[in-house]
Amino acid sequence: MDLSYTEEQVLLRDSVQKFVSDKYDISERNKLTATDEGFSREHWNQFAELGWLAMPFAEEDGGIGGTPVDTMVMMEEFGKGLVVEPFLATIVMAGTAISEGGNEKQRADLLPGIMDGSTIASFAYAEQQAHHDLNNIVTTAKKDGDFFLVNGTKSVVLNARSADKLIVTARTSGSEQDTDGISVFVVDADAEGISRSDYPTVDGLRASEVTFKDVKLSSDNVLGELDKGFPLVQKIANRAILALSAEAVGAMEVLYQDTIAYTKQREQFDHPLSEFQVLKHRMTEMFMEYSLAKSLCMKATMLESQDSAETQRTIHALKYLIGKSTRFVAQNAVQLHGGMGMTEELRVAHYFKRLTVIDSQFGNTDHHLTEFVA
Amino acid sequence: MDIEFSQEDLDFEKEVQDFIENNLPKGMDLWTKRGEWFEALRKKGGWDVSKWPVEFGGPGFTPTQRYIFDNEMAKNSTPPQLPFGVGMLAPILMNYGSKEQQDRFLPGIRDSSVNWCQGYSEPGAGSDLANLKTKAELTEDGKHYIVNGQKIWTTLAHIAHWMFCLVRTSSTGVKQEGITFLLIPMDDPGIEVKPIITLGGSHTVNEVYITDVKVPVENRIGEEGKGWTYAKGLLIHERTGLAGIQNSVLALEKAKENASSIKVGDGTLLDVPVFKNKIGALEAELLALEFTELRSLAQVSAGGDPGPESSIMKLKGTEIQQRISELNLESSGIYAAAWGNPVGPAFAKGATSGYLGARATTIYGGASEVQKDVISKNVLGLG
Predict the structure, then answer these.
(1) Which residues of A touch B255 (CB under 8 A)?
(2) Is A183 on the interface with B (CB under 8 A)?
(3) Contact of B169 with B122, CB cutoff 8 Å
(4) Which of A63, B42, B253, B271 is deepest in the core (most CB within 10 A)?
(5) Pick from B276, B297, B372: which is nearest to A281 by CB?
(6) Is A287 in CB contact (< 8 Å) with chain B?
(7) Is A276 in CB contact (< 8 Å) with chain B?
(8) How distant is the Cα of A284 from the closest Cα of chain B, in angstroms?
(9) What domains lie within chain A, and their CATH numbers?
(10) CA distance B279 to chain A (A)
(11) This prediction's pTM
(12) Predicted confidence band at B305 (pLDDT cuts at 50, 70, 90)?
């Protein structure tokens, strides 16, 4: 057993750390979230040059052959800076769909553009009636001669307005809640029949409601096996949960440390706040929540890297714990910053909002506790 | 990063498992044949004193081997050893005792022929242990200490032959610096032990009154006035062992089994969402704590210190123990009220006393609030 990073992982972490400290103070981030796309193409190209976008892909596909642990290393650092570039949507979500579900031709067609930064992609899976259930899908892809006609609406599709490709889940057979009968398609984001309604998310990112009206696809658009797409959907969700959890761990680290720093300099009743025992204990509890969440994040990520049978349950436990610990850490970070914690001026508020959004993605804390004990 | 143990460690794990399979007495024999079990452990190469170094007859396990060994023992509920001699006093004797003291006391500790108790806490010195007042004055000839005072919460003092004890030899200067570490025989006429019955109904802890007890200076460990330093290292040792993670893993399984035997509607208590969710929450936190321990272990194995994460083990581990005891209390339903009589489901008899007794876990070995003070100071750098 060895829980230390490899030399390559240390270098990777250091280079992401350097990027975050150079480019990501909160006012720079505010400038990015105020742009149309909500992120910087220049940063994205830099990610490509540094090889970050190729990290999780297999060497035979032209990638670097990294594991989910490498993604964790990057996401934790992204979380410390609240990085807004579409790494989760393009690399983790769409990237997993293509690399795990795509055939040789699809991988050769799609992955080079993703790795060189020229293709932005996202995963359109959520639907209004589904709450957090991945298998609840009413968007249909009906066979029409040699083609499929896709109809339905997908919700909160991250970075859809910037996307060149969308990965879409649709029902090719069965009824609303069946796991059988789900298929995964890759589609040009500007295909005829696709319309979008774009909006910012609470944490400054971008999302869209994406409607499909008689969008015509062929069997070349199917990723993986027709009707048997659910395991791929689950795989994408698992990778996304691991990435989001690592990001949350990074964000929590900043929050508990910022809170310590703030209470040391803020004086009330003629003493720094950090001298009050009730606050010391609260910060200790924040540190504990952070440490436990980090432990389980490491464990689940390593299990996923080794394709262990325990992975699925551990990921449910993880997303439950991340939801619980982020809520505790973020709420108390704001509380201990007092009125200043309520302002947009301090970064605490931005971390608070990001962590709130993370809980809502790919199943919240209650959803995963329910799955964990099922 | 690699979550698997090395082949060497896996082989060791197998060796421990095989040893337990072949030597652990089954069923009721577990109680009558304890001696044979410990003898087998000893013959295996010092496995009876698994944490002792080779030069004192221990197996000299690596940190990972020790972790594996402890886990396998906990998983199989092997007979526990009283911790006071083997686990707590022995390391102090090895580190700070003279050769004569080691030769005199270690054999009796090892073969369990001599029971020890720990004389630390006093009525005025609980979490603030350094505030202890039990006084030891050197006689004029410099050959003895005359000890007077009172100890409290002394676990198993009523069956102990000896007590290792912190006493005050100086009241000037910093209070930590006037403390000395003495070994006191319990059969001295100046020792009086009075039982304290705790809310779980059991007699485990005691008050110990010490009146004009004459202790030869040969029974002092190390230097006069250095007792606090010696004991502090041991307290850390005690705390990390108090998390009881593998015991909690087993206890949680048992709690599930208990709940599944209680009929509720068409199913069992285990199907009731509010109950099931409590179990799930505990299990998730326990998974996280288990891996936190491994993170510490990995750092120690790599030659580092246990890292800041290790500080939360006692705090979180004892909280989990208490929450598991609550599940059993709830599973016993109406029988939670019954005291002593075997009524209701079999597990219910111990459930309430288990719940009551578990309250102590967040008090002993450094109360949770003291742990938080320590972590906020040492780990978070808060005053």
Answers:
(1) none
(2) no
(3) no
(4) A63
(5) B372
(6) yes
(7) no
(8) 6
(9) 7-119 (1.10.540.10), 122-229 (2.40.110.10), 231-373 (1.20.140.10)
(10) 8
(11) 0.93
(12) confident
Q: Which residue of A has its CA nearest to B308?
A: A291
| A93: DSSP letter | I
Q: Which chain B positions have a beta carbon within 8 Å of A3's beta carbon?
A: 1, 3, 294-295, 298-299
B chain contacts of residue A283, beta-carbon cutoff 8 Å: 376, 380, 382
Instruction: Tell how strand A165-171 and strand A121-124 pair up.
Output: parallel
Residues of B in contact with A326 (CB under 8 A): none
Please answer yes or no on whether B298 and A295 come within 8 Å at the CB atom: no
DSSP 3-state of B264 = strand
Q: Is the ipTM of this complex over 0.90?
A: yes
Q: What is the tens place of the pLDDT at every residue in A76-105? A: 999 999 999 999 999 999 999 999 999 999
Q: Determine contact, residues A84/A29, Cβ cutoff 8 Å.
A: yes
Is the pLDDT assigned to residue A358 strictly greater than 90?
A: yes
Name the one residue in this structure whose structure tokens are 């009125």: A339
Mean pLDDT (chain B) is: 92
Catalytic residue among B72, B122, B238, B330: B238
**Strands of chain A, DSSP E:** 121-124, 140-144, 147-158, 165-171, 182-188, 194-200, 206-218, 222-223, 267-268, 271-272
pLDDT tens-digit series, residues A266-298: 999 999 999 999 999 999 999 999 999 999 999
Higher local confidence (pLDDT), A333 or B2: A333
- For residues A218 and A147, what is the distance between their CA atoms, to the nearest angstrom? 5
The pLDDT-based confidence of B237 (bands split at 50, 70, 90) is: low
> pLDDT category, B142, cuts 50, 70, 90?
very high
The answer to whether B316 contacts A288, with C-beta atoms less than 8 Å apart, is yes
- Asked if B315's CB is within 8 angstroms of A298's CB, the reply is no
- Measure B192 CA to nearest chain A CA, in Å: 39
Tokens, residue A339: 């009125």
**H or E element: which one contains B210?**
strand B203-216
Q: Is the pLDDT of residue A234 over 60?
A: yes
Residue showing tokens 């285990």: B270
Q: Which pLDDT belongs to residue B83?
A: 87
Whether the domain at B116-225 and the domain at B242-378 fall into the same CATH topology: no
Signed CA dihedral, B2, B7, B12, B17: sign only:
positive
What is the three-class DSSP state of A214? strand
Q: B160: buried, middle or exposed (CB in 10 Å: 19+, 13-18, 0-12)?
A: buried
E strands present in B54-178: 116-119, 135-138, 144-152, 162-168
Average of pLDDT values for A302-325?
Answer: 94
User: Residue B22: CB partners within 8 Å, gap ≥ 6?
Assistant: none
What integer pLDDT is reported at residue B239 of this predicted model? 63
Q: Which residue of B has its CA nearest to A296?
A: B288
- pLDDT tens-digit readout, B36-91: 999 999 999 999 999 999 999 999 999 899 999 999 999 998 988 888 999 999 99
DSSP string, A114-177: HHTT---EEEE---GGGTT-TT----EEEEETTEEEEEEEEEEEETGGG-SEEEEEEESSS-TT
Reported confidence tier of residue B333, pLDDT bands at 50, 70, 90: very high
Please state the separation of Cα B279 from the chain's center in Å.
25
pLDDT at position A138 is 97
Name the CATH superfamily, with its identifier, for domain B242-378: Butyryl-CoA Dehydrogenase, subunit A, domain 3 (1.20.140.10)
| CA closest to B68 among chain A residues | A1
- Predicted confidence (pLDDT) per residue in A129-148, tens digit: 999 999 999 999 999 999 99
CATH code: domain B116-225 is 2.40.110.10
Task: Give the angle subtended at the CA of B241 by the CAs of B236 and B247, to the nearest 5°.
Answer: 160
Position B254 confidence tier, pLDDT thresholds 50, 70, 90: very high
Catalytic residue check, B223: no
